[in-house]
């Protein structure tokens, strides 16, 4: 698990979202989402990490989304073109912070609970495995404040959910939807009875299972799955052949075969270890 205790807004032996300065609802302001990106970029450089669990430190909220009271937009006076260019850079920087979760080479398991609104859906959709407590309430809320979601929900949710009609409905209406509905549409893979503690425990268990596998195989699997999402089948097959022409030379493959022959559980070194 990744330790993020050196940061101000995120802490714990797994990444816990918590911003007490902005109320008891985990509302995001710019330093908060900037730090989220920094945490995952830091985790990406840690060779001993095998999997990451992302959850909230608050008992009733995953996050209420963006703190609009602390939100400011670039403005270049009377020149709308210059203001638009500045705002574009601002949005791209915000997107990059949330995309740090996706570009992290290690699987990220999110444990959602309570209210997970607006930006929460952007964050959760960037994760690899999505669990939700039975009490989770989701919403793609941006239309209710006069904008189209621009940090990832509209880019990722249609690609991870199986019901495009429902995705459109939720994005157009901004209505709340339950964990059960999220599971039915494929947005989450598992609904856990209970609240924060129960869903976090379930997420830690699956992360532990992932951590027992070859880190070379797991990192490659994440990379190839993301490539598959954004490319044709033929393109992904060709890319996978090139990728595995290098990765199949790992010692992990031989260690796994030897362990299987001895009916033992294989042990793999971290990605940074020397063979």
TrEMBL record:
Which pathway does the protein contribute to? Lipid metabolism; fatty acid beta-oxidation
| Recorded superkingdom | Eukaryota
Which key words are in the record? Fatty acid metabolism, Isomerase, Lipid metabolism
Against Pfam families, the record matches this protein to: ECH_1
Question: What's a single GO MF annotation on this record?
Answer: delta(3,5)-delta(2,4)-dienoyl-CoA isomerase activity
The leader peptide range reads none
Indicate whether Isomerase appears among the record's keywords. yes
GO cellular component terms listed in the entry, alphabetical order: mitochondrion
Q: Name one GO biological process term.
A: fatty acid beta-oxidation
InterPro entries named among the record's database cross-references: ClpP/crotonase-like_dom_sf, Ech1-like, Enoyl-CoA_hydra/iso, Enoyl-CoA_hydra_C
Q: Which family does it belong to?
A: Belongs to the enoyl-CoA hydratase/isomerase family.
User: What is this protein called in UniProt?
Assistant: Delta(3,5)-Delta(2,4)-dienoyl-CoA isomerase, mitochondrial
């Amino acid at each position: 698990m990744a330790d993020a205790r050196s940061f101000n807004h995120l802490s714990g032996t797994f990444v816990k979202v918590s911003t007490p300065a902005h109320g008891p609802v985990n509302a995001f302001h710019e330093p908060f989402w900037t730090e989220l990106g920094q945490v995952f970029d830091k985790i990406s450089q840690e060779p001993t990490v095998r999997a990451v669990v992302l959850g909230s430190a608050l008992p009733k909220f995953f996050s209420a989304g963006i703190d609009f009271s602390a939100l400011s937009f670039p403005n270049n006076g009377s020149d709308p073109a210059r203001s638009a260019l500045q705002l574009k850079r601002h949005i791209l920087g915000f997107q990059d912070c949330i995309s740090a979760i996706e570009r992290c080479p290690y699987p990220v398991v999110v444990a959602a609970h309570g209210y997970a609104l607006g930006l929460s859906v952007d964050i959760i959709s960037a994760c690899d495995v999505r669990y939700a407590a039975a009490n989770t309430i989701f919403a793609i809320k941006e239309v209710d404040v006069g904008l189209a979601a621009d940090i990832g929900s509209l880019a990722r949710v249609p690609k991870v959910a199986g019901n495009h009609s429902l995705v459109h409905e939720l994005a157009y209406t901004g209505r709340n939807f339950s964990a059960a509905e999220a599971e039915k549409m494929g947005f989450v893979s598992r609904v856990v009875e209970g609240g924060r503690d129960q869903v976090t425990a379930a997420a830690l268990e699956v992360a532990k299972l992932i951590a027992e596998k070859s880190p070379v195989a797991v990192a490659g699997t994440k990379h190839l799955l993301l490539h598959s999402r954004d490319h044709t089948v033929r393109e992904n097959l060709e890319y996978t052949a090139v990728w595995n022409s290098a990765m199949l030379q790992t010692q992990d493959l031989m260690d796994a075969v030897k362990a299987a022959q001895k009916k033992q559980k294989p042990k793999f070194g971290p990605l940074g270890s020397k063979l």
